Structure formats: C-alpha cells, structure tokens
Amino acid sequence: MTDMFVSLGTWNWLIFGFILMALEVMAPGVFLFWLGLAALLVGLISFAVVASWQIQLVMFAVFAAAAVPVWRRLARGRTDASTSPFLNKRTEALLGREFTLEKPIIDGNGTVRIGDTVWRVAGPDTPAGTKVKVVQVDGANLTVAAA
C-alpha cells in the first residue's frame, strides 16, 4: 500500500482528477467535480514543486476542504430570489389576486378554483360566482374579501 502512495506523481493526480470529473458527468451532484479539481491542482503543483506523497495527500485534503466554502459561495451567488420571488411560496403569489368563487362561502368557508386546483377560502358569506380578492395568506389557507 505504501508503494502506491510513493508512486503518486504528477500524472497520477491528473488522471485521478479527470476520472473524478468524468464520474461527475455520469452521476451529477457537483461533489466529485470539486474533488477532481483538487486532484488536478495537486497534479499541477507537482509539476513545479517536488513533494513527498504525504505532502501531496495533505495538499489534496486542503484543496478538497477549501472547495466546499468556495462552492457554497458560488452556488449562493447564482440563486437570485429577485428573478423568481415566489418560488416555493405559491400561496404568497396569490395575495392580491382576484378569483371567482366556485362554491359559496357559507359559515366562513367556501372554495375557489385557481388553475386546475380547488382552494379552500375563508371570508364573509358570499354567493357562488362572486369575484373575490385574496387579502391574507396563512399556509394553505386563503382569506378573501369581496372584490
């Protein structure tokens, strides 16, 4: 086993890095990419600096560990909430919109059809077919008022 570590050279690190990146293509998840990048960096540094296999493994570990915060910073920068502010907040997107009651509001409860979904609504007693406006959202509960 020690012979394997002793034989770790520049080309072995480069090959290992490309293998990890190829595995990332087959099983995407953006994890193996960073390990592959760390291996490639160790290989490139090994061209310029002759280091023992222990130092090479430490460099790989340091680069792999440093890749996690770098990846998080890059991933956080890519997701922009302003481009889709209601992503995973479907009910908040309904706030202020007007819909037609499908079933009347009786004793404070009725239904409204939004797209292909029937939503339960709460509000003052109102006959079916009346336009209502969503004034409050609490989870999956919509509170409406006459539009």
Can you lay out the helices and strands and say which pair or pack?
Elements: H1 2-6, H2 10-26, H3 32-48, H4 53-78, H5 90-93, E1 98-106, E2 109-114, E3 117-122, E4 131-138, E5 141-146
Parallel strand pairs: 3-5
Antiparallel strand pairs: 1-2, 1-4, 2-3, 4-5
Helix pairs in contact: 2-3, 3-4
Summarize the structure.
By secondary structure, the protein is α+β, with helices and mostly antiparallel strands.
Description:
- There is one protein chain.
- The chain is an alpha+beta fold.
- The chain is built from 5 helices and 5 strands; from the N terminus they run H-H-H-H-H-E-E-E-E-E.
- Strands 1-2-3-5-4 form a 5-stranded mixed barrel.
Task: List segments where confidence is low: pLDDT < 50 over at least 5 consecutive residues.
Answer: none
The oligomerization state is single chain
Give me the number of helical elements: 5
Order of helices and strands: HHHHHEEEEE
List keywords for this structure.
147 residues, alpha+beta, five-stranded mixed barrel, 5 strands
